[in-house]
Amino acid sequence: MDYSNFFINRTTPEIARDLLGRTLSYNTGSEILSGIIVEAEAYVGSKDRAAHSYGGHRSPANEGLYGPGGTLYIYAQRQYFFFDVATQEKDIGQGVLIRAIHPLSGINTMIKNRHGKSGVLLTNGPAKLMQAFGITSRKWDCHFIGESPFDIDLSSKKKIKHISAVARVGINQSDPIWAKKPLRFIVSGNPYVSDIKKKDIDPDFGFDKN
User: With 70 as the cut, is the pLDDT of residue 163 above it?
Assistant: First the structure.
């Protein structure tokens, strides 16, 4: 797959939006764990106060974010891990955080990895989906996605009824501009979106059956 072309030549928000409906998978060596991306968050580089590259900050810890488009940026907060893909040309420092997936395959293994958590709790958050995949290290940080056990299917995508652009989660409210920017893209009505309310869940999970 031409990951490098997909993750450049457009704005990072456009890339984040286009990731919705595509299948993210992880090959454990014995099984494929996968799910449809239903929530993705754009981080737009040095001007973005919520980005790890804000102000041009660069260190060995966030070097993956500065890789050419398609480079994995896997970072840790406490014991939790997060899956980002760098966007744009090398040294730009922009990327997309995958926040939630709708499980497709390997669900029993994912439930075991989540210590019995199932249903929407399985993968309705960025740390949860990585735990469901069994990721316990930054081993694949800075690797190009095509040279890793991860895969994003760029050949097809699930049809979506409606995509919403909403404010990102957990952004410091002391910065009103960046806290409210609609840079988080969601499949409206999907139950695995991290902060969805039960009343907003669509019977078709936000997917178009036609």
Answer: yes
* Mean pLDDT confidence for 28-41: 98
Note the pLDDT of residue 90: 97
Our count of domains for the chain comes to 1
Whether residue 209 lies inside any domain: the answer is: no
Give the domain extent around 25: 3-200
94 inside domain? yes
Q: pLDDT band at residue 3, thresholds of 50, 70 and 90?
A: confident
Task: Please check whether residue 124 is in contact with residue 198, taking contact to mean a CB–CB distance below 8 angstroms.
Answer: no
| Residues 6+ positions from 205 with CB-CB distance below 8 Å | 102, 187, 189, 190, 191
**CA 12 – CA 27 distance, rounded (Å):** 26
**CATH number of the domain bearing residue 21:** 3.10.300.10
Helix or strand or coil: residue 88? coil
pTM of the model: 0.96
Q: Enumerate residues 6+ apart whose C-beta is below 8 A from 85.
A: 7, 69, 70, 71, 72, 73, 95, 96, 98, 145, 152
